[in-house]
Design brief:
By secondary structure, the chain is of the alpha/beta class. The chain has two domains: 10-233, Spore Coat Polysaccharide Biosynthesis Protein SpsA, Chain A (Alpha-Beta Complex), CATH 3.90.550.10; 241-427, Vaccinia Virus protein VP39 (Rossmann fold, 3-Layer(aba) Sandwich). 35% of the residues lie in helices and 21% in strands. The chain has 14 helices and 16 strands. The strands form three sheets. A seven-stranded mixed beta sheet has the order 3-2-1-4-7-5-8, sandwiched between helices. A seven-stranded mixed beta sheet has the order 12-11-10-13-14-16-15, with helices on both faces. Helix 12 links the parallel strand 13 and strand 14 (354-365). Helix 5 packs parallel to helix 7. It is elongated, with a radius of gyration of 26 Å. The model is unreliable at 208-212 (pLDDT under 50).
Length: 430
């Protein structure tokens, strides 16, 4: 079962996971209350206590915070429990050991409009960490290794000082109960289309108490996480799959994406009202600022939100949200082959919204030759969870051109990628 959330009744919940942190809470809670009281927001402080043996509960209740006892050990477990108990629209997580000062909370709050998750980062320009040299280097190496391996943009993946838009956490299936949860949450929230941003932070180590992070075990936990998350990150279901493939490490995949981009950009109208159906996370939409992007998957649209300055809409290629004869151009790339029993219905819908004389750019694999079936067969073995098994409506060059001509379209141009993927430019009859 994924993360279950309470309805929002406050602006902000601050979650403090702790274990035997009474001494630090005596200092932190009054300071935090004072900071929050000056922010003009409705708020609560939520302390998730593990099996502490000190007087944590008494300190929490003395200072008016909400106390929840959770005897299941683990930082990750405490964080998830905090998400589930929070009443705020936003949830801020911070350590109770005074390494995350309450005075920085307004900085995170002010940065919330820049993303769905805001990380107080030690490693962006302006950030700093006062740690022993060996520990700092290990942290940087680990963050760099995970960032490169999982192709993620944030520089400080292991910072627990964060602000979350709570609704982006709904339904997340979280596996890790230790500190590795910090990377897991980022990755799985990103898979839902969350925008992740960072703001510089000066980290200073704890003042009282003993750290509960054991550095060797910490590294091993992250290596286990990498092994578990690798498949998720490289799945075609990930919202930035096409975006990454355009600049990916696999030469053939990169060539294919760039060739498709080049052809469609040459065929697409340079002005007027244009729509890219099933835009996904392609660079094509980003390079057509006048185009409207439509996709069924909301997480892909969320990914494209900061990368495309035009309109984005959730919609179905079989029932487009446009009036008849309202578009000057329309792009449908790698869509038609996914539609069961299509029989030209997708083409008819594209023509319905296209003005007379409007331009249609239509791309699909060409099953008429040996090239695409051969490539698809290899692709299906190498990546069995990828797109190959979703192709249920095979067109050939001849059948696609015939379908367009039967509907009165004039074929203006055509091109192909490795004689396997056909892209046609057609004009609707006047």
């Amino acid at each position: 079962m994924g993360v279950q959330l309470h309805p929002d009744t406050l602006d902000l919940t601050v979650v403090l996971p702790c274990l035997n942190e009474a001494a630090n809470l005596r200092v932190l809670l009054p300071s935090l209350r004072e900071t929050l009281g000056g922010m003009d927001v409705s708020w609560e402080i939520l302390v998730i206590d593990g099996p502490s043996t000190d007087d944590t509960r008494a300190v929490v209740e003395e200072h008016g915070a909400r106390y929840i006892r959770d005897d299941q050990r683990g930082y990750g477990r405490a964080i998830i429990r905090g998400f589930e108990e929070a009443l705020g629209t936003w949830v801020l997580t911070m350590d109770a050991d005074l390494s995350h000062p309450s005075g920085f909370v307004p900085r995170l709050w002010e940065a919330r409009e820049r993303g769905d998750i805001v990380i107080a980062s030690r490693y962006v320009p302006g950030g700093k960490a006062d740690q022993p040299w060996a520990r700092l280097m290990l942290s940087k190496v680990l963050n760099g290794f995970l960032r490169t391996s999982l192709t993620m943009e944030p520089l400080d993946l292991s910072s627990g000082f964060r602000l979350y838009r709570k609704r982006m956490l709904r339904g997340l299936e979280i596996e890790f109960t230790n500190f590795a949860v910090l990377v897991e949450i980022l990755l799985k929230a990103f898979a839902k289309g969350a925008i992740i941003t960072e703001t510089p932070f000066h980290y200073q180590p704890r003042i009282e108490g003993v750290s509960h992070a054991r550095i060797v075990a910490f590294g091993m936990d992250y290596l286990r996480l990498l092994r578990r998350m690798w498949g998720i990150r490289n799945s075609v279901d990930f919202p930035d799959y096409d975006w990454r493939a355009h600049d990916g490490r696999i030469w053939f995949q990169r060539y294919w994406q760039r060739k498709r981009h080049s052809i469609i950009m040459r065929f697409a109208p340079k002005s007027g009202l244009v729509c890219d159906i099933g835009c996904g996370s392609s660079h094509i939409l980003a390079d057509l600022p006048h185009a409207i992007g439509i996709d069924l998957r909301l997480e892909k649209l969320r990914f494209m939100r900061p990368r495309h300055h035009g309109a984005l809409m959730q919609g179905d290629g079989m029932a487009l949200p446009f009036a008849d004869a309202s578009l000057d151009g329309i792009i449908s790339s790698e869509i038609i082959e996914h539609i069961p029993d299509e029989n030209g219905r997708h083409i008819d819908e594209l023509l319905r919204v296209l003005k007379p004389g409007g331009i249609m750019v239509l791309g699909t694999p060409d099953y008429g030759g040996w090239q695409w079936p051969f490539i698809e067969g290899i692709y299906g073995r190498v990546a069995p969870g990828a797109y190959a098994h979703e192709h249920v409506n095979p067109y050939s060059r001849n059948s696609l051109l015939a379908a367009l001509k039967d509907r009165g379209c004039e074929i203006l141009d055509e091109n192909a990628i490795c004689r396997a993927e056909l892209i046609v430019k057609a004009k609707k009859a006047q």
